[in-house]
Structure formats: C-alpha cells, structure tokens
Amino acid sequence: MSEMEIEVSDDINGELEKMKESILVSVVESCGFFRSQQVGEPDLTVSEKREIASKLLSQNVPLFLERYWKYIKLEDVSYFESFKSYEVNFYLSEIRKFRDAHLNNIQIKNRRYGALKKMIQEGSYFSDAEMKKRYPYLYDQMIFQHLTENERIAAYKEQHKDEKFSSFLMGQMERNVENCLFEEQKNENEAVKEEEEDEDDESEEESELEDEGPKFISPSEKSRLREEFTDIMYEKFLSGKDSHFDYSSVDYNAEYDPPEKYYDDEEKYFSNE
C-alpha cells in the first residue's frame, strides 16, 4: 500500500470514528431503550448507556438500528453503508425519510415565524379589525365586552376609518359573514362548555355566574386579556388554523427564511413548544 493510500485510509477511518462518536452521543442522550429494569431500580448512568449502545453497535448493527434509528442524524447515515443487509437498508431509508420530513417541518415553521414577524410590523393582518373578522366571538369575549362606550366608539371609527361609501355594500356583506361566524364560534364554544359541565358537579353554579354578564375589570386585566388574545392569534397563525389564509404563499417561499445564525435558536423554540 502506497503512502497516499495509507493517508486516504486514515482519513476515512477518522471520519468513521467521528460519525461513530456522534451516533453514540445522540443515542446516549435519547430516551431510547437500553435494557429492562426492575421497579425501583436506579436509572442507568450515561456511561452505562454508552457501554450498552457501543457493545450493540459493534455486535449487532441491525438490532442497533431497530432500537435507535430515530435518533441518528442524517450526516451519520454513511457510517452504516458498509453493513449491507435488508434490515440495515430498510432503517437507513427510514432515517432519511424521517429526517427529511423533520427538516421540512422546521423549515415551514421558520417561514411562518418569519411571516408572522413581518405581518406584526406591517400591522394589518394582526390589527383589531382583521383579528375580529377571523375570530369575532373570541374577540368579543376577551376584548370588546370589556370596553367602555367611548372605547367602543373609538374602536369602531378606527376599524372603519378607510371605508368609503362605494365600499359600504361590500363592508356590509363582510359584516354579515362575520356575524354568521360569530354565531358559529359561539355555538362551538357553548357545546364545549356543555360537555365540560356534564362532567362537573358544580356546573349549575358556574352557569349562573356566567349568566350575570360581563363584569367590570381593571385596566391591567384588560391589558392582560388583550395580550392573551393576541398570543392566541399568533399561535393560531403559526399552527395553520387561519382557514382563509393562503399558507402556500409562506410555506414555499424562501423569502421568509431566517438568517442562518437564527436556525438553531428557532428550532429550539419550536421544539420546546
């Protein structure tokens, strides 16, 4: 063997060792199965998990993949390419499909997050008027019913300040749709409450309290409810629940990709969510 061939072989072995180490670290840090334990038996230590995983990787690659394929990174798949068998090929294919789907999911979430930030800055999609159109019943319960008469008048003027006489009929049609949506969302909410009340011994007392109508709340409570309502609107957008929004304009649009340095932080954010 020539000196160049030896160097190439050393490089390949070095890469394989790096991948092996990465694989073992990923597996040891996972919640995968290592061995059966009795009730009350202390959890396995990191070194014990590593010893079990390392031994299995050396002795039975198909079984190792069967147990831990979901925890193996895409860049480490080539470590197993020399272990040719039906089982190995099957799990390598599963890893690739799983990781591709995972990456696509993260990419979509990142793009929606980018679109969310842009729309918040623009101030139209998440204005009171637009959020009220999408979720009129929730807006009424959390914001509108707690406004004073002057605040309601000011809110109405703000929401209709750009409405011209020529668009009055169109605006009236939109309000009719909004009213229908209000009743639909109200009925859905009441159905959920009735179901919960059937399971609650104190449901009658709670219903009587609810029938008393809106109560006076402090400015700080108003502010808290508005913040909570807005957060709900953000979450509905991110989770794809805004039924009339064209998500394809965001999900397949690289314009909303964040700078590379933000990917890790945003992936961590969505993982926690």
TrEMBL record:
Region entry Disordered, spans: 182-223, 243-273
InterPro entries tied to this protein: CCD97-like_C (IPR040233), Ccdc97-like (IPR018613)
Residue spans of biased composition, Acidic residues class: 193-211
Domain CCD97-like C-terminal as annotated: residue spans: 110-273
Residue ranges with Basic and acidic residues bias: 183-192, 258-273
Identification of the protein by name: Coiled-coil domain-containing protein 97
Source organism per UniProt: Nephila pilipes
Highest classification ranks of the organism: Eukaryota, Metazoa, Ecdysozoa, Arthropoda, Chelicerata
